[in-house]
Amino acid sequence: MNRIEVDNLSHINNVASDNTDSNSTNNNNNDIELETVTTTNNNNNNNNNNNNNNNNNNNNNNNNNNNNNNNNNNNNNNNNNNNNNNNNNNNNNKNENNEKRNILLSIKLYFIQYFNKWKGGEKSPARADLEEIGWSWLTSFIGILVLALLHYRVTIEKESIFLLGSFAASAVLIFGAPKSPLAQPRNLVLGHIVSATVGSIVRVALVYTNAQTEVACALAVSLAIVGMHFTKSIHPPGGATALICVMSAEQRWRGFYYIFVPVASGSLTMLITALIVNNFARKRKYPVFWW
Q: Is the distance from CB of 234 to CB of 228 less than 8 angstroms?
């Protein structure tokens, strides 16, 4: 071979070697790039996984913290509720104790005031003079004498009565204390009539129906007082008039005759007598009012 051909062959071989080296270099570069990419991807995946794990851990920690906080809040709320309940119970117990003390104190004060009333406190009125005492004797003697004459000389022969024990009590008022509001004509006449009416009704309702006589007696007097209050005719002997009606024997008209004779007729007779004899006295004026 000549020199030129040898040089060409050498050049060709060099080119082939360069190509081979270039390919090898390219392949190596590609491999390095792939490895780099793979490594980068792996690193990214690892970072992502780590981030996810960290996030999960953070979430778990947050959830645990929230749960712990909720539990603590619930416990605190329960403790507060228990404390409030205990405080309420204590307050209720204190209120009950205070109420009991107030009740006991009220009862104590009531009885203290009640027994203090027994002491009175006002002075007794002065005794009447001899002139007043003399007129009281004379007028009461005349008043009861008139009733007794009518009772024993007139009505008793007709199996009736004209004289009641309650008229004696009325005589004390209208002849012994003619200025008293309880001794005025309205109280004298209306008080007796109201009481007799109540007593007759109670007698018919209870005594004739075989009810308790004791209850009838108490009811007659108490209702008579109520009736006199309503009619502004309080007259103490009226209570006796109602009681006598319940306790007395059988009378005509099932006891209602008792209202007219002896009660109404007897009280009117006493009023007329009081008008006549009381006004003879120098210091007396009867009545103080009529109605």
A: yes
